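Appendix B. One record, verbatim.
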Amino acid sequence: MEQENSTKALGKVDVYLGIICAILFADVIVSNTSLGPSVIAWWLIIGILFFIPNGLVTAELTGTYPDKGGIYGWIKKAFGSKWAARTSWFYWINCALWMPSAFIWVSGALCNTFFPNAGYFVEVLISIVITWVVIWLATRRMSESKWIVNLGGVSKILIFSLVILAGIFYLVNGNASQNVVTAQTMMPTVGDGLVYLPVILYCCCGMEILAANAHEMQNPRKDLPKAVMLVVILTIVFNMFASWSILQVVPVGELDLVTGLNQVLRVAFQADWIVMLSSLVLLFSVSVQIITWSQGGARGASEAAQEGELPASMGKDSPKTGAPTGALIVTGIVSTVVIVIYGFMASSAADLFFTLLAFSSILFFVPYAIMFPAYMKLKKIDAHADRPFTAPAGPVLAVICEVVLIIGMVLFVWVPGQPFDTAYSLPIIIGLIITVLIGEYIVNRQIKKNTKQTDMLKEVE
């Protein structure tokens, strides 16, 4: 066993940094903080109500079932192949639709910092180039690419630390806070909560992403649960203090959602070289984050395809590296098509892009809405499984997480107390219906085809 473990690519440090890289979202610090001082309190509230319970449940699952495929394998054990295939479809299509928004963000931030005179279509072209560089890196063997992911995790920690330091440095130099940050202004209200909940929830999912590569870890049953809980606490603390720091330096109304971190660092340190260097670190960390998510989404899709539940083209793994090459290539193609379509439509319909973000965010929540019931069922049907870590009152925590998730999904479409915006919400609802129908068609077609082939083999025998 020791000899077998020694050949695995991922050790304890790799697991910790991999999860940090995947779920410490440096690119959304400013968009969260732009909601005002009460975001600090809401991070604590949602952390207690959802993030920590989600971390505890995920830690138990990753330790008990460190299977290749991660969330796909857990749901398959609980509900069977069909629900597992559905989950893989949602998990994969969300990644394929989210990646274009991330690539466009990286390209926009890159051009804004280093090539301010570049035209919009240059940004689109750069986005496409970055897409295929990321896909290529995601197909590498973990022993070859893990150092990139490790650097991505370190980069996330550096960015958050630098932002926090900026606020402290700004105040120490005798500057007054640019926003009123007091116990009263941080006091949460129901109205704010309805706005904050889906945005912060988005940053509280994904701890299971590295479980898709558990087969390449030296000791997943022990390392994954510990890493999950450490990163959960780290994420809550970092986001609360980073938001506080940003609020000290720049007025909320003046924050730019793309270049906001540059604003903060430039105002606080008054040094262009710090801004330029931090921009490079941020862009690198976000790009590596995309690699981890593309690998996770593609791995689940590949597992489902190899079981005959998704198209066979998505189940072709590299014979040399074991990477889910087929699913990654399809992901790259979908991402490129979405970027090109957005490139033609953005100048006249910029809101379409943000609709796509909300749409992909709801898809992002769907696998987790299935995961929590799967966890509760596994606790019943597999009660005697060896659990290196057990979540206290796990089923209760799973129910709380499920309720919070469903509320978050609704709030992405409509916020109670506000008029129903048909132009914004209807495309999201229609897109969800179409996505579900396409997924059902693919899954049922593949399972029917697989069953037919099995029956033919039986007749031959």
